Amino acid sequence: MANVVVVGAQWGDEGKGKVVDIYTEHADDVVRYQGGNNAGHTLVVAGEKTILHLIPSGILHEGKRCIIGNGVVLDPEVFIMEVTRLKEKGRLQSDSALLVSESLHVIMPYHKQIDIAREAKSGEKKIGTTGRGIGPTYEDKIGRRGIRLMDLLDREIFARKLREALEEKNFILEKLLGATPFTFEEIYEQYCGYADILRKYVADTTLILHKDIAAGKKILFEGAQGTLLDVDHGTYPYVTSSSTCAGGACTGAGVSPREIHEIIGISKAYVTRVGSGPFPTELLDADGEKLRQAGNEFGSTTGRPRRCGWFDAMVVRFATRVNGLTGIALTKLDVLNDFDSIRICTGYQYNGQPLEELPSNLAVFEKCTPIYEEMPGWKSDISAARTFDELPDAAQRYVKRLEALVGCPIVLVSVGPGRDQTITIRNPFA
């Protein structure tokens, strides 16, 4: 038996969708444990691209059970749209293959409106939110005034909670943010309609997972975003509003830490981030644009161009420590195919002095400069490689150097977007 957590080891967008899709073959259940539809996981199977924002990436495999855990915040409209699109493609033949926690919190229209209005008023201090209402929903959750899915299924409870929420939210929208308030009627009937559709998917998912683990089934926990966007350990305040690290799998799915056996960090062979915040290795030149175009670095949720830079070993070394990574899945190595030389950030300098560890102080982080070493590129197409030995010598040396710098073994290398364009060095489920 092995239960595996997959986490982003950078600033998100590392290619977790593909890795989860690959590992799902060896799992019985796939569990999404945090975030909301601010995530976008892209999968390419048999040449067909599928983008998922809420439903676990394992849904493309028959005979697997996918679970959206209590740590997720759910936009019912987006969930229903994803289910509909999957069914139109011939996926999700059985509704029993998808379960949603009765305890997760629901994203309401006022959450999205507050998110957008706040960002508009922030000026130069914008965080770069997706405007999907994620942060305001988590605020209500922590403030103990949120609406859970179980509340939505009870019309009387939902009506009471919605009226209470609107009294506060409309004041904030109208008086503080200068935005249009909502009426009870326009939300109530719409969300009751969503509840009727959602009802068949709702379950006590923590109990189901407990029984499956006791029965010896294999569980794959799918994270969203990345370690440096964690609300506690990321580049605060330029972070998301949930616990993106491996520990979030326990609280966001309702399982014991003793039931986690492997933690795989996903990292690109370079690095990207979306939105504002420090990014020491960011390239604002032709190399940065080359990475963006070759890697198709545009957000699957927002379409925004991602900021691109050379691989940052300080970031992934930090992710290895705070997550307790047992392996790294290195993605998009093929994006570096056409570079004559490739740089690696091995550390930072601050005020002319080298730093031993990633700084937690944002004011320091923003002024750090990268320390680089340079390696030769391989200048060849590696997309057909299926074993590590089939990679060019220069590519092998690059992977080995990254492994040494971050202090964690690389267990998978992706050489293209397709499911089959993958080199498996060690299977965490084995």
Automatic annotation (TrEMBL):
<dbReference type="Pfam" id="PF00709">
    <property type="entry name" value="Adenylsucc_synt"/>
</dbReference>
<comment type="pathway">
    <text>Purine metabolism; AMP biosynthesis via de novo pathway; AMP from IMP: step 1/2.</text>
</comment>
<dbReference type="InterPro" id="IPR001114">
    <property type="entry name" value="Adenylosuccinate_synthetase"/>
</dbReference>
<feature type="binding site" description="in other chain">
    <location>
        <position position="225"/>
    </location>
    <ligand>
        <name>IMP</name>
    </ligand>
</feature>
<dbReference type="GO" id="GO:0000287">
    <property type="term" value="F:magnesium ion binding"/>
</dbReference>
<feature type="binding site">
    <location>
        <position position="306"/>
    </location>
    <ligand>
        <name>GTP</name>
    </ligand>
</feature>
<dbReference type="GO" id="GO:0044208">
    <property type="term" value="P:'de novo' AMP biosynthetic process"/>
</dbReference>
<dbReference type="InterPro" id="IPR027417">
    <property type="entry name" value="P-loop_NTPase"/>
</dbReference>
<keyword id="KW-0436">Ligase</keyword>
<keyword id="KW-0963">Cytoplasm</keyword>
<keyword id="KW-0658">Purine biosynthesis</keyword>
<feature type="binding site" description="in other chain">
    <location>
        <begin position="38"/>
        <end position="41"/>
    </location>
    <ligand>
        <name>IMP</name>
    </ligand>
</feature>
<dbReference type="GO" id="GO:0004019">
    <property type="term" value="F:adenylosuccinate synthase activity"/>
</dbReference>
<dbReference type="InterPro" id="IPR033128">
    <property type="entry name" value="Adenylosuccin_syn_Lys_AS"/>
</dbReference>
<comment type="similarity">
    <text>Belongs to the adenylosuccinate synthetase family.</text>
</comment>
<feature type="binding site" description="in other chain">
    <location>
        <position position="304"/>
    </location>
    <ligand>
        <name>IMP</name>
    </ligand>
</feature>
<dbReference type="InterPro" id="IPR042111">
    <property type="entry name" value="Adenylosuccinate_synth_dom3"/>
</dbReference>
<protein>
    <recommendedName>
        <fullName>Adenylosuccinate synthetase</fullName>
        <ecNumber>6.3.4.4</ecNumber>
    </recommendedName>
</protein>
<dbReference type="GO" id="GO:0005737">
    <property type="term" value="C:cytoplasm"/>
</dbReference>
<comment type="subunit">
    <text>Homodimer.</text>
</comment>
<dbReference type="InterPro" id="IPR042110">
    <property type="entry name" value="Adenylosuccinate_synth_dom2"/>
</dbReference>
<keyword id="KW-0460">Magnesium</keyword>
<dbReference type="GO" id="GO:0046040">
    <property type="term" value="P:IMP metabolic process"/>
</dbReference>
<feature type="binding site">
    <location>
        <begin position="300"/>
        <end position="306"/>
    </location>
    <ligand>
        <name>substrate</name>
    </ligand>
</feature>
<keyword id="KW-0547">Nucleotide-binding</keyword>
<feature type="binding site">
    <location>
        <position position="40"/>
    </location>
    <ligand>
        <name>Mg(2+)</name>
    </ligand>
</feature>
<feature type="binding site" description="in other chain">
    <location>
        <begin position="13"/>
        <end position="16"/>
    </location>
    <ligand>
        <name>IMP</name>
    </ligand>
</feature>
<feature type="binding site">
    <location>
        <begin position="332"/>
        <end position="334"/>
    </location>
    <ligand>
        <name>GTP</name>
    </ligand>
</feature>
<feature type="active site" description="Proton acceptor">
    <location>
        <position position="13"/>
    </location>
</feature>
<feature type="binding site" description="in other chain">
    <location>
        <position position="240"/>
    </location>
    <ligand>
        <name>IMP</name>
    </ligand>
</feature>
<feature type="active site" description="Proton donor">
    <location>
        <position position="41"/>
    </location>
</feature>
<comment type="function">
    <text>Plays an important role in the de novo pathway of purine nucleotide biosynthesis. Catalyzes the first committed step in the biosynthesis of AMP from IMP.</text>
</comment>
<feature type="active site">
    <location>
        <position position="141"/>
    </location>
</feature>
<keyword id="KW-0342">GTP-binding</keyword>
<feature type="binding site" description="in other chain">
    <location>
        <position position="130"/>
    </location>
    <ligand>
        <name>IMP</name>
    </ligand>
</feature>
<feature type="binding site">
    <location>
        <begin position="40"/>
        <end position="42"/>
    </location>
    <ligand>
        <name>GTP</name>
    </ligand>
</feature>
<feature type="binding site">
    <location>
        <position position="13"/>
    </location>
    <ligand>
        <name>Mg(2+)</name>
    </ligand>
</feature>
<feature type="binding site">
    <location>
        <position position="144"/>
    </location>
    <ligand>
        <name>IMP</name>
    </ligand>
</feature>
<dbReference type="GO" id="GO:0005525">
    <property type="term" value="F:GTP binding"/>
</dbReference>
<dbReference type="InterPro" id="IPR018220">
    <property type="entry name" value="Adenylosuccin_syn_GTP-bd"/>
</dbReference>
<dbReference type="InterPro" id="IPR042109">
    <property type="entry name" value="Adenylosuccinate_synth_dom1"/>
</dbReference>
<feature type="binding site">
    <location>
        <begin position="414"/>
        <end position="416"/>
    </location>
    <ligand>
        <name>GTP</name>
    </ligand>
</feature>
